Amino acid sequence: IDKVILGEKIERSIKKEEYKRIALHETGHALVGELVRPKSVATITIIPRGKAMGYIRHVPEKDSYIHTRDYINGQIAVLLGGAIAEEEILGDRSTGALNDFQQAVDLAKTIIESGMSSLGIVSVKDLPGNIFHDVLKEIINEQEEKVRCIIQKYRDIVIAVADYLLEKERISGQYLRDLLKAAAN
Q: Which of 70, 142, 145, 162 is the Cys-Cys partner for 27 at CB 3.0 to 4.6 Å?
């Protein structure tokens, strides 16, 4: 499945420190994804394929053509999970989150354009740029703080999963769920 989605494995000479960052990043996505939508993570991998240095494969969702603000906020949170995990564990973020951030911004724009932001229903094209930017930032910051709390709460699990991922390169979502279940008890 991974080969079809992302392409062939790519042999890259990646430094050990970069692999650790990638493992933490992907674990952050997986953890938040699992908490936002339980039993959604199928696989976590740090095997480079295509342009991806790592990848989370989620269990496919049922087709849906409309989404609530809660759903979109959850997707933004998942996208931010990787960078926040890097920052909380390693002290800073990397360029590995660039695509994640762009997708998160696009989703935040959808919230505004759909009349689901604090602005209510507005004409986006008539909205002053600074107001649009402030509300966009408000949406992203709200999810960023939620994700930061999650990563801080489950810090030990993030580190354990990332370490195990460094050893195995590819693990099932069930491994993460088992650790979360053990932590809850």
A: 162
Residue 88 is a catalytic residue: no
pLDDT at residue 132 in the model: 94
Q: Which value, to the nearest 10 degrees, does the dihedral of the CA atoms of residues 49, 50, 51, 53 take?
A: 0
- Find, among 164, 167, 36, the residue nearest to 179 by Cα: 164
Which residue is catalytic, options 26, 34, 87, 144?
26
Residues in a beta bridge with 55: 45
DSSP assignment, residue 127? S
Q: pTM of the predicted model, to two decimals?
A: 0.88
- The pLDDT value recorded for residue 82 is 96
How far is Cα 109 from Cα 100, in angstroms, rounded to an integer? 14
Please say whether the beta carbons of 105 and 80 come within 8 A.
no
Q: What is the pLDDT of residue 51?
A: 61
161 and 171 Cβ atoms separated by less than 8 Å: yes
Rounded-to-integer distance, Cα 85 and Cα 23, Å:
10
Place of tokens 């790592």: 54
pLDDT the model gives residue 184: 81
State which residues of the chain have pLDDT below 50. Answer: 4
Query: What is the spatial distance between Cα 158 and Cα 149, in angstroms, rounded to a whole number?
Result: 13
Find the length of the chain: 185
The answer to whether residues 46 and 22 touch, using CB atoms and an 8 Å cutoff, is: yes
pLDDT of res. 117: 96
